[in-house]
From TrEMBL:
One example GO MF annotation: transmembrane transporter activity
GO CC terms, sorted: plasma membrane
Lineage: Bacteria, Bacillati, Actinomycetota, Actinomycetes, Pseudonocardiales
SUPFAM superfamilies, A to Z: MFS general substrate transporter
Keywords from the UniProt entry: Cell membrane, Membrane, Transmembrane, Transmembrane helix, Transport
Presence of the UniProt keyword Phosphoprotein in the record: no
Keyword Iron (UniProt): no
Family matches, as InterPro entries: MFS (IPR011701), MFS_dom (IPR020846), MFS_sugar_transport-like (IPR005828), MFS_trans_sf (IPR036259)
Protein name: MFS family permease
Residue stretches spanning the membrane: 26-45, 51-75, 87-111, 117-142, 154-178, 190-209, 239-264, 276-294, 306-324, 330-355, 367-391, 397-418
A Pfam cross-reference name: MFS_1
Compartment(s) where it occurs, according to its Swiss-Prot or TrEMBL record: Cell membrane
């Protein structure tokens, strides 16, 4: 009797393929955020005064996050129906293509109102693609890994976030050395056009990766659902909501430290953008080191415990960060970034194994994708614009720090309520006596 077997697990290859995709995703998103802070106000919204133009440009940054749920719905459906691999190839092409096209856009001076309209349209495409990219990438890694190593391998994929941010900042730091006329005419396009090279590399690696073993097992067991979105909302709606709330703080911190901090340094501290980038870049090395360590620690002491420690740290560290930034001392500013990044690393490192573990394989893409993308709207999307508004209204940083601390409290409470099934991350769904489509869907409190 022949036995149907799924593909062998390829954890190293899955980590590399997913890490490259996550790096590209955050490189593309970060260069848009940096351009919003530095040049888009002049290029696409020149009819407004500098602060208002910057606020509008930062708001277009948030549009990409608002579009993410659509991507989560569409790509989550197909990821749970036909598999992770094909979906990840499509999302990578969409993300890289839209970013590359932004680098070719005419500006307001060339075509008027059409320029910002096209910019927002491409930003929406970025958001739709990312709505499927992150969840699919971390699932491929987690599901290719044995349970005892899922924390550290998922965390390694999450270092792609900081790697993409570092690459984007290095490229922008280089183009900022150009004379202003050159920067505004063609220099700003370089970071966007370079995305095309990264996408080619990512596609080569991703195309050769086998399908997720957990998905193949679910498919062979007859557990794949016709409408996974309906099933996940019916059986794990509470988990979706808690994942969204648990995501808020890390998203808020990452966006404000890597995007808004550049504007804050210029508007509140009187420091140049290049000076702020020169502080941010070496501080980001903390993320590359601390995130894998936190993932490994989660494999040893528990995923939820590490998440909660990180969330608790993010209640306090925004106040330390701003206080040290206001010294304008390079060393103390660097220390401020390092402090908040340590707490962020503990919290963010376990997202892949924690959030995927509360959903069964047949519904994982949809459940994690929807929860995570809603959380990014609440946390990331308009955080730079809100922070800029608070700075303008109060003239200081206390309101912004309280805003960040409030987000951390929400995520901490969600983490306290969100629990993995008693036996660890959800096991592959199995057919039951009533048929292949009736296997139980564990909830967050199972």
């Amino acid at each position: 009797m022949s036995v149907t077997t799924g593909p062998r697990r390829s954890p190293a290859k899955a980590v590399i393929a997913s890490w490259i995709g996550t790096t590209i995703e955050y490189y593309d998103f970060a260069i848009y955020g940096l351009a919003s802070s530095l040049v888009f106000a002049k290029l696409f919204f020149p009819t407004f005064d500098p602060l208002a133009g910057t606020l509008i440009a930062l708001s277009t940054f948030g549009v990409g996050y608002v579009a993410r749920p659509l991507g989560a719905l569409v790509f989550g459906h197909f990821g749970d129906r036909i598999g992770r691999r094909t979906v990840l190839v499509v999302t990578l092409l969409m993300m890289g293509g839209s970013t590359f096209l932004i680098g070719l856009l005419p500006t307001y001076a060339s075509i008027g109102l059409g320029a910002p309209i096209l910019l927002v349209a491409l930003r929406v495409l970025q958001g739709i693609s990312v709505g499927g990219e992150y969840s699919g990438a971390v699932l491929m890694t987690v599901e290719h890994s044995e349970r005892a190593r899922r924390g550290v391998r998922g965390a390694l994929v999450n270092t792609g976030t900081s790697t993409g941010m570092i690459l984007s900042n290095l490229v922008f730091l280089a183009v900022l050395t150009l004379p202003e006329q050159a920067l505004l005419s063609w220099g700003w396009r370089i970071p966007f056009l370079l995305s095309g090279i990264l996408v080619v590399v990512g596609l080569v690696v991703r195309w050769t990766l086998e399908e997720s073993p957990d998905f193949v097992e679910a498919k062979q067991a007859g557990a794949v659902r016709r409408l996974p979105l309906v099933e996940v909302l019916r059986g794990s709606g509470r988990a979706v909501v808690l994942v969204a709330l648990a995501t808020i703080s890390a998203g808020m911190v990452f966006t404000l430290t890597t995007v808004f901090s550049i504007s804050y340094g210029r508007l509140a501290l009187g420091l140049s953008s290049s000076t702020m980038l020169s502080v941010l870049l070496p501080a980001a090395v903390v993320l590359l080191v601390a995130i894998p360590i936190a993932g490994r620690l989660a494999d040893r002491v528990g995923v939820r415990r590490v998440f909660l420690v990180g969330a608790a740290g993010l209640v306090v560290t925004p106040f330390v960060w701003f206080a040290l930034l206001d010294t304008r001392s390079y060393g103390l500013m660097l220390l401020g970034f390092a402090v908040v990044f340590l707490a962020y690393s503990a919290n963010y490192a376990v997202f892949p194994v924690y959030f995927s573990g509360v959903f069964p394989p047949a519904l994982r893409f949809s459940g994690m994708g929807i929860g995570f993308t809603i959380g990014t709207i609440l946390g990331n999307a308009f955080a730079p614009a809100v922070a800029a508004s608070l700075l303008e209204a109060t003239g200081g940083w206390w309101g912004i720090a309280l805003y960040m601390a409030g987000g951390a409290v929400v995520s901490l409470l969600a983490g306290l309520a969100l629990r993995l099934p008693a036996d660890g991350p959800a096991a592959p769904a199995r057919p039951t006596a009533t048929g292949p489509e009736t296997s139980a869907v564990p909830t967050a409190g199972a």
